[in-house]
């Protein structure tokens, strides 16, 4: 597997020249577009290639964990009342809902509006406690107790997050949320600014793939039914408005982020973390997607 991953990195590295680093968050513009790494974890071990240990901010890849914690805190029916699961066909930060009354049917957990709404369901007396519980879940699933917020990216997101503020106020205007918007967005901005590596993502993805368990542990970290739910939602709408094409070409549940990461779960088989900050037009890592396409075709990963 390690040799295969190294071959894939070499074969797909030219795609790092064809994408563009995210620029709407000023700190993300500083990323090196040549960085490219991948990690695969299965029950036999972990396999690494390229810049697998390069840190980057999780961005939208935190959304499956927001969904997971909301499910664990409230149960499926309460979550479904607030947020649907259908793909929107719109960009992740879209807020063109002016023609209709915004309801749960118009958002899903893998776009900004849905994830922001679900942050209200995370238990905690304060917004700080809500975020700390989410960070604790990420640390537990990744097996990395040192996961923390990149303060520069957090402040950059907080200063320039105008669309997310618009989304949050729209949610409040339609009475989908009833809380202090600034405190709610502080949870969301910090969550998106947690720094991870390919290995961290692969470990989280493996827990989702392995029905809630780590490869070397009998202890159930998360309920198997919620792991299945998160996998299903990622398969439907985890790759922004490129989710359908990804399902055809790769065929596994995955979530991308504009920091260049992709977390992919192959049910009952493996977890994958990939990173390359040069993005395609839909906000997905271009080299990361191509690497997953090649890996899926070579070892038959598609669940379809």
Short summary of the structure?
By secondary structure, this protein is of the alpha+beta class. Helix content is 44%, strand content 12%.
Can you characterise this structure?
With about 300 residues, the chain is an alpha+beta fold. The chain folds into 2 domains: about 1-60 and about 195-300, 3-Layer(aba) Sandwich (Beta-lactamase); about 60-190, Probable Glutaminase Ybgj, Chain: A, domain 2 (Orthogonal Bundle). It has helices at about 1-10, 65-75, 75-80, 110-120, 125-140, 150-160, 160-175, 180-190, 200-210, 225-235, 245-250, 285-300, and strands at about 20, 35-40, 45-50, 55, 195, 255, 260-265, 270-275, 280. The longest helix has 16 residues, at about 125-140.
Task: Fill in the keyword field for this structure.
alpha+beta; 9 strands; 2 domains; two-stranded antiparallel ribbon; 304 residues; Beta-lactamase
Q: What percent of residues adopt helix (DSSP H or I)?
A: 40-55%
Number of helices: 12
Strand neighbour order, sheet with most strands: 3-2-8-7-6
- Gyration radius (Cα, Å) is 18 Å
* Quaternary organisation: single chain
Topology:
Layout: H1 2-12, E1 20-21, E2 37-42, E3 45-50, E4 56-57, H2 63-74, H3 76-82, H4 112-119, H5 127-142, H6 151-160, H7 162-173, H8 181-192, E5 195-196, H9 198-209, H10 224-237, H11 243-249, E6 254-256, E7 261-266, E8 270-275, E9 278-279, H12 286-299
Antiparallel strand pairs: 1-9, 2-3, 2-8, 4-5, 6-7, 7-8
Helix pairs in contact: 1-12, 2-3, 2-4, 2-10, 4-7, 5-8, 6-8, 7-8
């Amino acid at each position: 597997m390690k040799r295969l991953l190294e071959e894939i990195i070499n074969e797909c590295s030219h795609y790092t020249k064809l994408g563009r680093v995210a620029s709407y968050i000023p700190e993300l513009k500083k990323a090196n577009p040549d960085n490219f790494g991948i990690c695969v974890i299965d029950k036999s071990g972990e396999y690494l290639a390229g810049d697998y240990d390069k840190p980057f901010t999780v961005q939208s890849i935190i959304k499956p964990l927001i969904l997971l914690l909301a499910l664990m805190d409230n149960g499926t029916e309460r979550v479904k009342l607030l947020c649907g699961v259908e793909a929107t066909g719109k960009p992740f930060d879209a807020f063109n809902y002016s023609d209709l009354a915004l309801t749960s049917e118009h958002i899903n957990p893998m776009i900004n509006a849905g994830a922001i709404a679900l942050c209200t369901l995370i238990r905690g007396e304060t917004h700080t406690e809500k975020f700390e519980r989410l960070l604790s879940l990420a640390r537990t699933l990744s097996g990395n107790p040192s996961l923390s917020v990149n303060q520069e990216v957090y402040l950059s997101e907080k200063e320039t997050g105008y669309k997310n503020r618009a989304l949050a106020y729209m949610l409040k205007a339609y009475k989908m949320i009833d809380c202090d918007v600034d405190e709610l967005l502080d949870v969301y901005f910090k969550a998106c600014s947690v720094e991870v590596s390919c290995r961290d993502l692969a470990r989280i993805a493996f827990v989702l793939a392995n029905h809630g368990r780590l490869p070397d542990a009998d202890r159930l970290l998360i309920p198997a039914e919620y792991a299945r739910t998160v996998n299903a939602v990622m398969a439907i709408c985890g790759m922004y408005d490129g989710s359908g094409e990804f399902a055809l070409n790769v065929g596994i549940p995955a979530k991308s982020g504009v920091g260049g990461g992709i977390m992919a779960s192959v049910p009952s088989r493996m977890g994958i973390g990939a990173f390359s900050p040069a993005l395609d037009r839909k906000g997905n890592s271009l080299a990361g997607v191509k690497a997953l396409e090649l890996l899926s075709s070579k070892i038959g990963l598609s669940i379809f």
